[in-house]
Amino acid sequence: MNGLTRMWKREWPLHFMLIPGIFLVLLFSYVPMAGIVMAFQKYVPNKGLFGSPFIGMKNFQLLIDYPDIGRIFFNTIFIAVMKIAAGLFVPITIAILLNELRREWIKRTFQTLVYLPHFMSWVLLSGILVDVLSPSSGVLNQALGWFGIEPIFFLGSNDWFPYVMVASDVWKEFGFGTIVYLAALTSINPSLYEAAAMDGAGRIKQTFHVTLPGMMPIIVLMLTLNIGNVLNAGFEQIFNLYSPPVYESADIIDTFVYRMGVQQAQFGFATAVGLLKSIVSFLFVSLSYVLAYRLANYRIF
Amino acid sequence: MKLGRKFLLITTLIVSVALAACGNNAKETEKSSPSASPSPSASSSDSNGAESGGVIEVSTVSPSDPYLKFDDGESWEKNAVYDAYEQDVGVKITNKWIADISQFKEKVKITIASDDLPDFLLVNATQLKELTEAGMIMDLTDVYEQHATEETKKFLTMDGGLQLKTATFDGKLMGIPSSYNPYQYQYLYVRTDWLKELNLPEPKTMADVAAISEAFKAKNPGGKSTTYGLAVSKNPFSNETGVTGLRAFLNGYHAYENIWIEDGNGGLMNSDIQPEVKQALAALQDLFKKGLIDPEFAVKDTEKAAELLYDDGIGMVFGASWTPAQLVKGAVKDDKVVQEWGVFPIPSVDGNPARPQIGIGVDEYYVISKKAKHPEGVIKLMNQWIVIDNHPTPEQKVYTLGKDLVEKGSNYWLLNPLRVGKQLDNNGEILPKAIETKDESILQTQDQKTRYERAMKYVDGNTSMWWEYLISGPKGALSLNPGIQNNKQYMQNKFYGAPTPTMVERQEILTKKRDEVYFKIIMNQVSVDEFDKFVDEWKKLGGDDITKEVNEWYAANK
Question: A39, A106, B264, B280: which one has the fewest Cβ atoms less than 10 Å from its Cβ?
Fold first, then answer.
């Protein structure tokens, strides 16, 4: 009996346990990839993937010819990039601040409270936001009124709408990010702080020279993963909150695809846009991965 | 160590078994086809009678509805309705699958995509066209001609045959329209107690509408801090908005929302870009400027917009005939009627009466699979449905009430697998008269009887039925219908073909641009002259091509 056989004998249950996982990944992640073919078809549901006629790049042509396409791409990237940036900055700041808290129970309570909105759906939250942001009866505008500011119709104004999307998205999700970064903070060796204190570094200096560098791997990881979302500006949120007067600043690729693909039943077209989004995301993730390696000498895989 | 490994092994096995079991379950529910569920019902003595001219079997698919409550011992497999069909017309109904009503349409798509049709099923207009092109469904021309009774043929052509025509491709009847009455108008609902209090006349013109809005806001009879003149929600132009829409407002200005109307030169033109719309938008902008429309209407859905109606903030709203069913939430509080509403025909901007816009009255069709062995069975089911729905004998009430023939709110009519509705009803002539004179004898249809009973409950002091009285009563919404109907004072969409190629590609952007411009004009963000720019844009973005295609269709189908 050679070593390999012995190893196999010892470890076969582990390999066996992998089977359901591999099966699920194949079934739900690889098999559906065949559907990409729809992007090049005039897809007719009852003819299926094999029977639908191929039309080459016509679905992509349709996308490029769409009159508002520039506006839609701009809105998508504008909102998504702001969300990525704010989604990085806010949770890191909060995590560092929380980490400075002495009393454990305050920290835990706060953490739980800010984490809560993460579990609510946008359908629900959009109803709440419409009320909170209402110019006539909303809490926010009443508060602004105390400072003599005229009521603002946040959800009906093209100047405000994208920022409201970013702010409400950050409010909903920063609790989740905070937990990730707090976990990263616990992995920093306390002796580094002691050494820094010996050298005369105060709280602020310690934060910049010990805490932040210590968190860097996680920050780079999160950023790299998030960069893939540069074309995902958040369908659920915008779909539930936008309206015709703010189409100009609110219409993003996903809402457009919804109206075109689902309401007008253009499945091939919707797939083509999805494919395009995936390719762009893939390029961005690859790029940020290379950059992370070059600049921060950090590897995810 | 040993124990650990055993534990892992067992866990793995359990997981894989569970997965396998899930797979099987899914398959079984899907495949509960006729053969899998034989369950011979009481009356079918021999199940092989199909060929020998006895009982024939047809399969379908059904949505399970939460309002359907089975009698004890009954189920989708065996129930009084299916038994009755089997006994009376010799057709045994089976279900290939049953899905919850919320998932039914999705499941139909999958059924079509996987080419696994039952003998007959209900599909939408797009699917009808797809199935016809794919050759998956049967040409019904001959079957219908041979097996439909005279009554059925008359019943399905009450509208002059328009609905049947929408299911006809190249002279072949490919589906049976799941017909309903297209003559569904919208009306203006106004707080009549406020009109009386402020001594205002009933609204006859659109100028009256503006004047009443202003008076309601200025004099504030409801005594609320937030008051507007007219209730509007965020999808005012959508077909689905039955209450708080603005379609009827447009109609008051002889403008119409996305229908095809005659252009005066023998062709068709789209109503969205006509100059009358500009006039209507200017009027809406004026209302908005005066604070008579909620500045936040663009983010409020119907229910939210209606809250202002419930709590006395607004006293005027456009809506369908069933609007009172929405208004009742505010009008009746603690068994007392606290708001009085009146219903009026859509006022007009000038001397010509306004014409409410209407569609064709059919958007779904029953189709028969090409593989069906007994298409005539499906037609027989339809013949029988028309009989029992319109003039049931006491015994035939089993089809709607179950075997004990008692109305107990179990909604057994949902079990009838093929249902077509009247394309024309005389509710507006019969019901107001019957309710006013309490004369039950002139009632003709089941629908009229149900409505009469509800309205009578209100007359007898049951305020929860307030809404039915405002719909069917002497001064109800339906009482306005004969006037509209007899003078043909409506505007019906002239285009009923499948979406044209350019429509498929461009309708989305056209609707988007339209909504954007309409909203901005109403909300006074841009001048009403932006409408002219929109018209040019509409034409350039594909509107002209669509108009051409629609006119080609019109020339061929006139």
Answer: B264
